[in-house]
Design goal:
11 helices
Length: about 525
């Protein structure tokens, strides 16, 4: 069944959970903050790693390399002195110098091991600890290897004292070869430290390049995220600007409701509520204009009716006198028919003036709780002869759960009569009228379905306007008065087209009395 529009309770459709604009904006800035934090953290980690590697080079590898260089220098001096000892003018002095360097050599090796222990083996870096252990063990092994030259030195120095040059040369050659091998091993240890330093420097350079690339990329990503979120925030807040522009347009007098873009947040709710408010203001203004129009028409009708009532009353009195004289003279025929015709027109004018006065001076309804079904049956019973003459059959259906409503008996009876007679006039050759009374939306709903010719849509829009009519004879006040009566009762009336005929729907609110 088609339902009329009006101030009824309409169930709200389920809507998705509202997304808060504040939370969305905060989340957007949180994303930017996270991107910035990632960039900053990576930069800090990279810089810290670079600082640790620089400290490892400065306090670990460089001192170790210097101590190895000192040991190698000492070893090279011993080898050089041994290489020329057989040609020395004073072998005793050379022997003393060599013995001194041999006593200093353990100190230089101890310095290498100390540098390896302090600079590398105590580090958290596993590779540095491994290299430190390798250098320390290699130095200890080299020290043991070089310590075995004592007996050969004794043979060399004894041959030099005895002047046995062949033996001295042979001993020197063995000792020089032994010391050169020691120097070679020292250089291998130095090159191992240098390779480790080169690897560390290369890795640091690679890490620095990667860090620069990553920082640039992260910075670009952060910038893109920031720009994207700025655009997103602007899109989220753009409906607010449209609401502001709509508010300015409404302030200028534009009360045409606009479609609202769906937005499940506070701004979307604000826009929807604002457009609903604009629609309500437009309806209120239309109702006010309509009320002012009705008031003006009522004042005009009252004034015109007041001016013509006295002449109509005088004409009626004179007609009565004329009818009495014609009756005394026993006049029949055409004169009497003319007087009867004049009497009919005078009575019609009197009824029309009363209808206009009723529109202009309609009293406030005297509401009382009652049975609308009983009133409907009584009214249809009163109109039954009139409907029968028009060949209109009536069916009535009243639901048992129809609630009681508060109404003015006389005014609601007049409204029902207006609707029934309007349906009868819509079926000039007869038809059927179905009247139903049911519970609907916390009130009583009465529908009247006729099988007449129907009402075009463009005509339905003005159907309840005063003085609007499609009939050749009619004042256009019946439906206007009916709507005025129903609205005074807090109800509503609407008209819709059926497949055949028209439906008028009347709704009255349920009585709130216990």
């Amino acid at each position: 069944m088609d339902q009329p529009s009006g101030p009824a309770l309409i169930p709200r459709e389920a809507t998705p959970p509202r997304r808060s604009v504040a939370r969305r904006i905060v989340a957007s800035f949180a994303v930017v903050l996270v991107a910035f934090t990632v960039t900053l953290t990576w930069s800090v980690v990279t810089q810290r790693r670079a600082a640790e590697e620089a400290a490892l080079l400065r306090t670990g590898y460089v001192p170790l390399l210097l101590s190895l260089g000192t040991a190698l220098e000492t070893q090279n001096l011993v080898s050089a002195q041994l290489n020329h000892i057989t040609d020395a003018k004073n072998p005793a002095d050379a022997r003393g110098w060599i013995e001194t360097q041999r006593r200093l050599r353990p100190l230089s090796f101890a310095g290498v091991r100390s540098a390896a222990d302090r600079g590398l083996r105590q580090r958290a870096d596993p590779r540095a600890r491994a290299i430190g252990g390798e250098i320390a063990s290699g130095t200890a092994e080299l020290e043991r290897f070089l310590a075995s030259d004592g007996e050969q030195l004794a043979v060399l120095f004894d041959a030099l004292e005895r002047g046995d040059r062949p033996v001295a040369e042979a001993s020197k050659a063995d000792l020089v070869a032994h010391e050169v091998e020691g120097a070679k091993r020292l250089r291998e240890l130095s090159r191992r430290v240098e390779r480790a330093m080169d690897e560390l420097i290369a890795e640091a350079a690679t890490r620095e390049r990667n860090a620069i690339v990553l920082v640039v990329l992260l910075g670009a990503v952060t910038l893109l995220v920031g720009v994207g979120l700025a655009v997103y925030a602007r899109r989220v807040l753009s409906p607010l600007a449209r609401v502001t522009n709509r508010a300015k347009a409404v302030a200028r007098g534009d009360l045409t409701p606009h479609a609202v873009e769906s937005s499940p947040d506070e701004i979307g709710e604000l826009a929807t509520t604002f457009e609903a408010m604009v629609a309500a203001i437009a309806r209120a203004r239309g109702e006010l204009v309509q009320a002012e129009r009705l008031a003006a028409m009522g004042r005009m009708a009252a004034h015109v009716t007041h001016e013509i009532r006295n002449p109509i009353s005088a004409m009626g009195l004179n007609l009565e006198l004329l009818e009495e004289e014609l009756a005394e003279l026993s006049v029949t025929g055409e004169p009497k028919q003319l007087v009867l015709a004049i009497r009919g027109e005078v009575d019609r004018l009197a009824a029309l003036s009363e209808q206009y006065l009723g529109l202009a001076r309609r009293p406030k309804p005297d509401l009382a709780t009652g049975d609308l079904g009983a009133l409907l049956r009584d009214t249809l019973r009163f109109l039954a002869p009139e409907l029968a003459r028009a060949a209109v059959s009536v069916t009535i259906s009243i639901a048992e759960d129809t609630p009681e409503v508060r109404f003015d008996d006389a005014q609601i009876r007049q409204a029902i009569q207006n609707l029934v007679r309007n349906a009868r006039e819509a079926m000039p050759t007869g038809g059927s009228l179905a009247v139903r009374l049911t519970r609907e939306e916390h009130g009583a709903m009465m529908t009247l379905d006729d099988t007449g010719e129907g009402i075009p849509e463009d005509v339905r829009e003005s159907l309840f306007d005063p003085f609007f009519t499609t009939k050749k004879q009619g004042t256009g006040l019946g439906l206007a008065v009916t709507r005025e009566i129903l609205e005074a009762h807090g109800g509503r009336i609407s008209c819709v087209a059926l497949a055949r005929g028209t439906r008028f729907s009347v709704w009255l609110p349920e009585s709130d009395e216990e």
